[in-house]
Specification:
The protein is 31% helix and 13% strand. With 166 residues, it is an alpha/beta fold. It has one domain: Oxidized Rhodanese, domain 1, CATH 3.40.250.10. The strands form two sheets. A five-stranded parallel beta sheet has the order 1-5-4-2-3, sandwiched between helices. It has a two-stranded parallel sheet with strand order 6-7. It is globular and about 35 Å long.
């Protein structure tokens, strides 16, 4: 009985540690994200990415959003118009970070990638909004911009830096 209870306690503590809450730049944003996301995919914050060049960034937003701005060297894979052809040159074990505006669509795309065998896939917690909040570079075609497509007017309230585009 003691062994069983100890096992349950250790399992609970390990599980709690694995799904430890990330903290964005704004507590209200974090609270909203934690109610929106299922946390089924490993998550990373922009400040935790020490060498962005060692990752493949996949943008789960649609083409119109991507064209406004995106993370440097990101590939647009889409959500509604998911394009698996983007994955043709990517090895199944390469480190991938999927992002969207907030992290919901990218979480779903990351789940899909994991099922497809892309074993080193992570979701950017807070999406491009948190990327901008952390003063990271975003580009339009090839030049820096501060414009961010906010998906819709309702979600635009979560973007605290940059120029909102609907």
């Amino acid at each position: 009985m003691i062994k069983r209870n100890l096992f349950i306690l250790v399992s609970f503590l390990l599980t709690t540690n694995l799904i430890a809450q990330k903290q964005t730049s704004y507590i209200e944003f974090t609270n909203m994200l934690d109610s929106l996301l299922t946390h089924t995919v490993k998550e990373v914050l922009p400040d935790e990415i020490k060498n962005p060049a060692s990752f493949i960034f996949l943008d789960a937003r649609e083409k119109e959003e991507f064209e406004i701005s995106h993370i440097p060297n990101a590939l647009q894979i889409g959500y509604e118009n998911f394009d698996p052809k983007v994955l043709e040159s990517i090895q199944k074990n390469q480190p991938i970070i999927v992002y969207c505006s907030l992290g919901y669509r990218s979480e779903k795309v990351a789940e899909k990638l994991l099922k497809m065998g892309y074993s080193n896939t992570t979701n950017l917690y807070g999406g491009i909004f948190e990327w901008v909040h952390c003063d990271q570079l975003i580009l339009n075609d090839s030049s820096a911009t501060d414009k961010v497509h906010t998906y819709n007017k309702e979600w635009s309230k979560w973007l605290k830096k940059g120029e909102k585009v609907y």
